[in-house]
């Protein structure tokens, strides 16, 4: 840019002696990186499981981001959170009379008629109510979240499984191309037999959520997928922020470093931004409504 300005100013001088040349200097940007970032993360339980060497010399593959990379992350953190809450409220659930089971067919209509519950929260309230009934009916000991997408008629949509992305998430496709996932396997598994599992380590509304270690007692490993469907790089202001503000892109990166003894030959697939854009659109519309 500086050379270009010099050339342009020279052309101006040759064109007319009366021309005024304005000199400007492009400011030099100095990045002030903090080399101590991340040193405060507790890595006492980090596993040395970077041993998935492929033809490129890459020793491990991780993903952080949102639904375009998530392969079971939202299900895992949802299951962990539900089980923590389940254990807290279990004494109360035990006190709920079995009569509630008889109301199973009336629950949806009752919730629809409750003006105290916002319309956008009513589907969640219905799910929770049916969950309570299921727990009472089947004497459930633990809860596991399983995400399946359905159409307007409630019919399950093929290809949507364990997340919000049509077919395979981008990170899984990349992992397949690099040889860390066997595309022919029913369950995505790494080249040495390890499954491409979710990794979680965060705190949501006071609940410490930590994903389990996978594998046998002699070959333990932590999950590789730290992406969470709906995640952002900025703070979410609506009610979904109760969860999403605990799994922002920086939280995912911290969880990865906490659970793995990372190496310079590990590869991290990062993808983020779509949900931030939606948040900006919401802010724009809300401001317009306020101004009007």
Task: Describe what you observe in this structure.
By secondary structure, the protein is mainly α. It has eight helices and four strands; from the N terminus they run αβααααββααβα. The protein has helices spanning 2-15, 73-95, 107-112, 122-138, 170-178, 241-244, 249-259, 274-291; strands at 60-65, 201-204, 207-210, 266-271. The strands form two sheets. It has a two-stranded parallel sheet with strand order 1-4. A hairpin with a 2-residue loop joins β2 and β3 (207-210). The longest helix has 23 residues, at 73-95. The radius of gyration is 26 Å and the shape is globular. The two termini are 44 Å apart.
Nutshell version of this structure?
Helices cover about 35% and strands about 5% of the residues. It has about 290 residues and is mainly alpha-helical.
Topology:
Blueprint: H1 2-15, E1 60-65, H2 73-95, H3 107-112, H4 122-138, H5 170-178, E2 201-204, E3 207-210, H6 241-244, H7 249-259, E4 266-271, H8 274-291
């Amino acid at each position: 840019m500086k050379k270009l300005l010099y050339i342009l100013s020279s052309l101006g001088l040759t064109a007319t002696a009366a021309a005024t040349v304005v000199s400007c200097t492009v400011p030099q940007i100095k990045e002030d990186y903090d080399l101590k970032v991340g040193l405060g993360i507790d890595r006492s339980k980090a596993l040395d499981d970077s041993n998935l060497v492929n033809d490129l010399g890459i020793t491990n593959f991780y993903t952080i981001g949102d639904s375009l990379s998530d392969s079971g992350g939202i299900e895992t953190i949802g299951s962990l959170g539900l089980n923590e809450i389940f254990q807290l409220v279990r004494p109360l659930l035990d006190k709920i009379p079995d009569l509630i089971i008889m109301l199973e067919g009336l629950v949806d209509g009752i919730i629809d008629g409750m003006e105290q519950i916002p319309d956008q929260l009513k589907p969640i309230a219905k799910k929770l109510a049916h969950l309570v009934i299921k727990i009472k009916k089947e004497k459930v000991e633990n809860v596991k979240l399983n995400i399946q997408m359905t159409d307007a008629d409630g019919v399950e949509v093929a290809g949507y499984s364990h997340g919000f992305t049509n077919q395979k998430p981008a990170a899984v496709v990349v992992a397949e191309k690099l040889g860390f996932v066997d595309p022919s396997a029913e369950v995505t598994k790494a080249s040495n037999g390890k499954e491409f599992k979710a990794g979680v380590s965060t705190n949501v509304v006071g609940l410490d959520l930590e994903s389990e270690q996978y594998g046998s007692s002699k070959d333990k490993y932590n999950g590789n997928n730290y992406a969470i469907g709906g995640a952002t790089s900025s703070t979410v202001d609506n009610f979904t922020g109760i969860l999403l503000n605990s799994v922002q892109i920086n939280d995912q990166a911290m969880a990865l470093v906490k659970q793995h003894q990372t190496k310079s030959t590990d590869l991290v697939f990062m993808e983020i931004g779509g949900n931030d854009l939606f948040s900006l659109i919401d802010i724009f519309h809300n401001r317009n409504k306020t101004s009007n």
